[in-house]
Amino acid sequence: MYEDKTLICKECGNEFTFTAGEQEFYAEKGFVNEPQRCKACRDARKNAARGEREMFEATCASCGGVAKVPFKPREDRPVYCSECFAKMQEEKADDAADDAAAEE
Length: 104
Ligand SMILES: [Zn+2]
Ligand SMILES: [Zn+2]
Fold this sequence. Notes:
The chain is an alpha+beta fold. Helix content is about 40%, strand content about 15%. A hairpin with a 6-residue loop joins strand 3 and strand 4 (about 65-70).
């Protein structure tokens, strides 16, 4: 009674198949709306909702350890592991405090 339907994903614009089986499943669940997104986009949104992000591994420019960063590291920019990054932030804060003291 159901036939595969081709729908357009409103997220990426690709065509995807709303299969007869899925239509039956939707009908059973009482869903009135057809899916708006292809499976890839739906999965991506699910992952985003869970706060999962793709992490990239790089070498820490300070200690040489493994640094995991949520962006693709660029070769012309140093990457630091979370420990070294935190240490640097502290040092920066100390410098700022010293500068402020020196101005008086
Ligand atoms: Zn899509
Ligand atoms: Zn490090």
